[in-house]
Every structure is written in C-alpha cells, then in structure tokens.
C-alpha cells in the first residue's frame, strides 16, 4: 500500500462515516418533518371537518324521507342551486333593476320606515337558513309526494302552481316549531338552474337577436332551485319580520304583510278586467311590483314570496350572464306564464339539448 496507504484508509473511513451520518440525520429529519406534516394535515382535516359540521347547509342537515335515492339527489342539488340564488340576494341593492322590477324598489320612498330594514333581514335570514343549521331552530323535514297530495299540482298536466308545499306544525305565526317541505311530483319535471343558464349562454352566442331576447327573458329560466328558494321564503322563520303587519291604506288597519302558504297575492292581468290571477311567475310578479305596499287592495311585492324568489333569480342570472334578464316586458306584452320546453311555441333557441341533470 505504500506509506500513504494507511492515511488514505483512515481518511476514507472518516469520509464514509461522515457521509453516513449526514444521510442518517437527513433521514431522521425528513421523517420528523413528514410526521409533523401528517399530524398537521390530520389536525387541519379534523378542524375542517369540525368547521363543516358546524356549518352544514340544509342539504346536509335536513331530514329527507319517503324519497327514492335518485330523487334525494335531485332535491339536494336543488337546495345547492337555491343556496346560490339566496347568496346573490343576501344584501339587496335597491338601485339595480332586479330590485326595482321585482321588489318595487322604485317606490321605496313610499315605504314605511321599517320596510327596508325588515326586507334586508328577510334576505339575510333566507341565506343563513339554507347555508347552515341555525342554533335552536328545529330540523326541517322534507318528504316526497307519494299518493296525490291535496295541495300539490297535478303532475300529468302543465301547472303553474308551486311544486313544493310548505307547512308548519303550529297554528301561531310566532310558532317556529317544525317546518316541513313536501316535494310534489311536478317538481321533478322541472329543469336545473345549471341547464337554464347553460342554454342562455348558448343562445347568447347566436347572431340572432330574437334568441338573445329569449335568453334574457326570465320566463325561460324557471328551475328547481328557484322553487326551493321560493319555499324558503314561505317559512315563518325567514319572513317573520314581514308578518308583523303594516298600515293598510288610509284605513290604517294592521294586517299581515305575508300570509302563509299557499296564499299568494293576486293581480288583475288586464286593467279593470275584474279577472285576478295568482302571482307565481315573472309577468305577474312585475305587475305586482307596480303597486304601493300601502294600497288597500294588497301588500304589493313586499308581501309576495314569489317576488322575493324571482328577485334572487334575476340578480343571480344578471351576475352570471353579465346582462340583466329584462323579459318578460309586462307593460308591452300580453299576460303569459313560465315557458316550458315542450309547450307550444319556439324554444329559447334551436340546437341546445339539456345536459344530464347534475348529481349531488
């Protein structure tokens, strides 16, 4: 080996031991880091799970029974779509067209001083109600219509009535105990919000002005999420502020602003026709919003859950499409109900086919 052999041997061993110790320390350190990361991730997941449990939305905490697995998925997805609508309406902007056409905000100088704050509370409470379980409030119960429910519309014909029946267990307006939603068979014939918006975006890419007009017509945007939002506005807990009453015209009598389901305000579809129809679509909702809420013949838009729900839909569609859905023009068009695919008349635009309904 020569005289340098022992030196190289000792040096090589020392170098080898140094490298081994470095890798050993790195391995231990990496293991500790990975272990710490796993613990951190576990704690993070646990914290997230705890937070989600505390903020479960209505689709997660409501008790659903008498429904098939497929229908439960439809219901839960409709709740999520209603949640999107109600979040868009959480803080109403009374200067925008949706509030003026559906809430009568252009007349708010004639509102009683408490109306605006009550209305703000209604929309905030609706968004809170569907977003998370409210402490102290009984768990809502959701049922599917099995045999023909006396308050459900006939699913065999085109109907413009509510497809969700809202009922409370107590008779007193101030009794917040149990609320139940009966989902009528007609509900499942309606489209999803995702499909109506998808069709509108598709039609807006057309060069046809007529297609654009129909894409921005709320009559073409009826969907399951809208009707679930509408049901939320029929619950006592959400609209309790508007049930306190208001002055009725010059008589100064106190009456309820909102009546429980299935009450709706009514309007004359033609001037002095003495023909009254329920407010359950955009045309009649816009006409109702022209009435002063102090008129002797009704509570106007502030007494109509339909107007509240359509305001939320109009606000959301406007945000999603970047343009206000100004149709139907009730002042220049004859009375008409929601458009439904398959009805007589043209579709929103040709070439569109609904996508499979989203699954929860």
Structure notes:
The chain crosses the membrane at residues 6-28. Keywords: Membrane, Transmembrane, Transmembrane helix. By secondary structure, the chain is an alpha/beta fold. It has a domain at 71-321: Collagenase (Catalytic Domain) (3-Layer(aba) Sandwich). Helix content is 43%, strand content 8%. The strands form 3 sheets. The protein has a 4-stranded mixed beta sheet, with helices on one face. A hairpin with a 4-residue loop joins strand 5 (246-248) and strand 6. Helix 4 packs antiparallel against helix 11 and helix 8 (224-232) crosses helix 11. The radius of gyration is 29 Å and the shape is globular.
Question: Which terms would index this structure?
Answer:
single chain, 360 residues, alpha/beta, Collagenase (Catalytic Domain), 4-stranded mixed beta sheet, two-stranded antiparallel ribbon, 11 helices, globular, disordered N terminus
């Amino acid at each position: 080996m020569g005289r340098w052999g022992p030196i190289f041997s000792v040096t090589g061993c020392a170098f080898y031991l140094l490298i081994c110790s470095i890798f050993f320390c790195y391995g231990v350190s990496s293991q500790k880091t990975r272990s710490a990361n796993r613990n951190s991730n576990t704690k993070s997941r646990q914290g997230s799970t705890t937070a989600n449990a505390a903020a479960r939305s209505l689709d997660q905490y409501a008790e659903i029974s008498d429904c098939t697995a497929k229908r439960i998925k439809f219901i839960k997805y409709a709740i999520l779509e209603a949640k999107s609508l109600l979040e868009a309406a959480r803080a109403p902007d009374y200067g925008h067209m949706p509030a003026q056409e559906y809430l009568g905000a252009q007349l708010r100088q004639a509102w009683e001083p408490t109306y605006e704050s009550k209305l703000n509370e209604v929309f905030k409470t609706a968004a809170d109600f569907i977003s998370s379980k409210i402490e102290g409030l009984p768990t809502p119960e959701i049922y599917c219509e099995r045999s023909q429910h006396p308050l459900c519309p006939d699913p065999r014909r085109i109907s413009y009535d509510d497809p969700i029946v809202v009922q409370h267990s107590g008779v007193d307006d101030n009794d917040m105990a149990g609320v139940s939603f009966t989902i009528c068979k007609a509900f499942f014939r309606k489209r999803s919000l995702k499909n109506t918006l998808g069709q509108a975006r598709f039609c807006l890419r057309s060069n046809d002005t007529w297609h654009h007009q129909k894409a921005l017509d709320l009559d073409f945007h009826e969907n399951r999420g809208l009707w679930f939002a509408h049901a939320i506005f029929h619950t006592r807990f959400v609209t309790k502020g508007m049930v306190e009453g208001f002055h009725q015209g010059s008589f100064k009598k106190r009456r309820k602003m909102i009546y429980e389901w299935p009450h709706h305000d009514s309007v004359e579809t033609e001037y002095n026709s003495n023909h009254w129809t329920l407010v359950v679509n955009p045309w009649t909702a816009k006409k109702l919003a022209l009435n002063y809420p102090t008129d002797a013949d009704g509570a106007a838009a502030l007494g109509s859950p339909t107007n509240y729900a359509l305001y939320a839909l109009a606000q959301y569609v406007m945000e999603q499409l970047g343009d206000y859905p100004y149709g139907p023009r009730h002042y220049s068009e004859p009375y008409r109900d929601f458009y439904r695919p398959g009805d007589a008349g043209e579709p929103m635009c040709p070439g569109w086919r609904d996508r499979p309904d989203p699954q929860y």
